[in-house]
TrEMBL record:
Name of this chain's protein: Uncharacterized protein
Keyword set, alphabetical order: Membrane, Transmembrane, Transmembrane helix
Transmembrane regions: 24-45, 57-74, 86-107, 113-132
């Protein structure tokens, strides 16, 4: 994966930069998913009490808010005109891995509460879809100003 990533960066075409951005994003999501699974396994082994409904709603809202904030920051990084286009796209791609990563990590932490885990996984899947579609718009040709 890293060889393909480096090759795409060297090519420098918009399509290659988009592939590199998607690879960077995928690597970042994998780095969040692995600890989430490990934490979930530990939580499942320990067992635990389920959260009351109000607490589950608060956790889901917190996860959605943090994911939204991560998306805004990644989008802001992609639009920076004071850095090279490739750097802006890759920075945004790495940062955007937090968008689905936050709900994934929180899902692992709340494993005994399966309804909440399902809600957080659905949130992570939706966040992944939004970021995946956004990555193409965040890659701009070299020398161009802000993406559209």
């Amino acid at each position: 994966m890293l060889k393909a990533f480096a090759r795409d960066l060297r090519v420098g075409t918009p399509a290659a930069r988009q592939r590199a951005a998607r690879r960077a994003y995928s690597l970042g999501v994998a780095q969040a998913a692995v600890p989430a699974v490990l934490v979930g396994l530990v939580q499942a082994a320990q067992g635990g009490a389920a959260l009351p409904l109000g607490s589950r709603v608060a956790v889901a809202v917190l996860a959605a808010g943090l994911a939204a904030a991560a998306y805004v920051l990644a989008r802001r990084s992609a639009r920076r005109a004071d850095v090279p286009a490739a750097q802006a796209a890759l920075t945004a791609a790495f940062q955007s891995a937090s968008v689905p990563g936050v709900p994934l990590l929180m899902a692992g932490a709340f494993v005994p509460t399966w309804g909440l885990v399902l809600a957080l996984l659905v949130l992570a899947a939706l966040a992944h879809g939004v970021v995946w579609r956004s990555l193409a718009g965040w890659v701009r040709p070299a020398g161009e100003g802000q993406p559209g």
